[in-house]
Amino acid sequence: MICIPAEIPPDLCAIDDERKAIYHSNNSVCIWVFVSGEDRNRFMKETAGMDKADREDFYLAHFNTELLS
Predict the structure, then answer these.
(1) Cβ(39)–Cβ(32) under 8 Å?
(2) Which of 15, 22, 46, 60 has the highest Cβ tally under 10 A?
(3) DSSP labels for the chain?
(4) What is the greatest pairwise CA distance in the chain?
(5) Torsions phi, psi of 10, nearest 5?
């Protein structure tokens, strides 16, 4: 197991894990938040194999980005 300490905002921690998808690369960690677990599962299925930029574009095109506002 590898743990990387980070200061995660409490608002993000409070969101149900079923609604979050986490991606990491050698230089970043991304946490996408969805309205529902079904949306998260759709995102995971439809973006399987995509790189970070393509996943970001897909998220912006298909899901609400105002969830943490």
Answers:
(1) no
(2) 15
(3) ---------HHHHTS-GGGEEEEE-SS-EEEEE-SSHHHHHHHHHHTTT--HHHHHHHHHHHS-S-TT-
(4) 34
(5) -55, -35
Q: What length does the chain have?
A: 69
Rounded CA separation 50/6 (Å): 25
CB 3 within 8 A of CB 32: no
Which residue in the block uniquely carries the two structure tokens 């960690």?
A: 29
Alpha-carbon distance 40 to 21, whole Å? 7
pLDDT in tens, 6-51: 899 999 999 999 999 998 888 888 899 999 999 999 999 999 999 8
